[in-house]
Amino acid sequence: MAFVNVDPENRDDPFYRYKMPQMQTKIEGRGNGIKTNIVNMVDIAKGLARPASYTTKHFGFELGAQSEFDEKTGTCRVNGSHGTAKLAGLLDKFIKKYVLCYECRNPETKMLINKNQMIQLKCAACGSVSYVDMTDKLTTFILKNLPKQNKGSEDVKQRKLNKQEKKQGSSSKEGISKASSTKKKASGCHSQVDEKEEVEVDDNDDDDVHFQTDTSPEAARQRMQDQLSAATANMVMLSTNESEKKEKVINMVSNKSNGNSNHHQTLVEELKANLNNGISARQLKSLMGTHSHEKISALLEALFDGIEKGFAKEVVKKKNYLAAILTQEKGSQLLLLESIESFFEKVSSTALKEIALVLNALYDADLLMEEYILQWYQEGLKGVNKDSRIWKKAEPFIEWLQSAESESEEE
């Protein structure tokens, strides 16, 4: 069986180690009953660690045709006659949206459903959490068709709710009132219990299989060479007479070590150039495309890099650009907050003092809602960077936000 690289942008990279089977199709039937059978859809789905029903339904939505996946036989069919190249292109689109990490493009992601019914991709490589565009038709199908093994988590939730109800029933009216108030606050904050209740979406027909890896001798040699340093790669390739090929391989190894930082800096410079040319907020929105933590962080750096004082005033002046990157989806505000956190970790202590003012300015401009600010803050205090100076500097605004909430509840 032939294998191809999972990431469409790394198809020609001989060192790329994540493989999936090359798509095989067969046309069946005639006339109005003609269908395209994707023969090895189950194997491809295992290589992507996603249910085959998701990729099948994706083809149907993209082609505007009826599609069906038979769980018993593992057969994937799409109405109409469709070429292999066309279907492979649609599969690449699915991979970009639902498999690759939006931050580092690594396919080792797990699909999670959070308490707000948002689909997230958690990357095992870089640890980032990407938010899937919930306007895509396939997201509705995914939420309605979670893998069977995840149904047990719903029972856990129900048992927890029953326990809470019993506790509330045995307490006094004062206790019930207090619990009700606490529950309201919890809706704005992502508690530790909520984090444990995230539903993991994974096609675990074979728990040990997440990606298809080519085990041929040639592939093994390629993986070994991928681990060589740039200097060692240079020594190995000196034995090759093709000088052009040698230079290409060395550049690839070198680029891998500097790829992330170079890519980020390039993105920042491109955004700065567009902003200097007077790009409008609407044009920026189109330019940004699918939003990710990396893109928003680059935009913040392009907009505010080098500012020491008057940071909050600059945020107000350029709020239209920040509004352009926010969508109707709930996850976009959390993405902005996480990007603000990353940005402020790199600024001077003078600029850091203004983070409370920046949050207040975005709150007053209706760009950030109270519940997401509180959720971000609570998660930050419990997260990996819980000792960051950011939380202490943001605390005055958070306390004001919480006290205002308490006063409104009492009224």
Give a verbal description of the structure.
- The chain is an alpha+beta fold.
- The chain folds into four domains: 145 residues, Defensin A-like (2-Layer Sandwich); 53 residues, no CATH class; 49 residues, no CATH class; 130 residues, Serine Threonine Protein Phosphatase 5, Tetratricopeptide repeat (Alpha Horseshoe).
- It is 56% helix and 9% strand.
- It has 19 helices and ten strands.
- A four-stranded antiparallel β-sheet has the order 3-4-6-5, covered by helices on one side. A four-stranded antiparallel β-sheet has the order 9-8-7-10.
- Strand 3 and strand 4 form a beta hairpin.
- Helix 2 packs antiparallel against helix 4 and helix 10 crosses helix 12.
- 24% of the residues are buried.
- About 14% of the residues have low confidence.
- It comes from Corchorus capsularis.
- InterPro entries: ARM-type_fold (IPR016024), IF2/IF5 (IPR045196), Transl_init_fac_IF2/IF5_dom (IPR002735), Transl_init_fac_IF2/IF5_N (IPR016189), Transl_init_fac_IF2/IF5_Zn-bd (IPR016190), W2_domain (IPR003307).
Give the amount of beta strand, in percent.
Answer: 5-15%
Task: Give a quick account of the main beta sheet: strands, pairing sense, barrel closure.
Answer: 4 strands, antiparallel
Structural class label = alpha+beta
Please give the share of residues in helix: 55-70%
Low-confidence stretches: 149-154, 172-197, 205-211, 227-243
Radius of gyration from the CA trace? Answer: 25 Å
Count of helices? 19
At the fold tier of CATH, the topology name of the largest domain is Defensin A-like
Strand order of the largest sheet: 3-4-6-5
Q: How many beta-strand elements?
A: 10
Secondary-structure element sequence? EEEEHHEEHEEEHHHHEHHHHHHHHHHHH
Mean pLDDT: 75
Domains (count): 4
From the coordinates shown, what is the CATH architecture of the largest domain?
Answer: 2-Layer Sandwich
- Give the N-terminus to C-terminus distance in angstroms: 69 Å
What is the CATH top level name of the largest domain? Answer: Alpha Beta
Shape: elongated
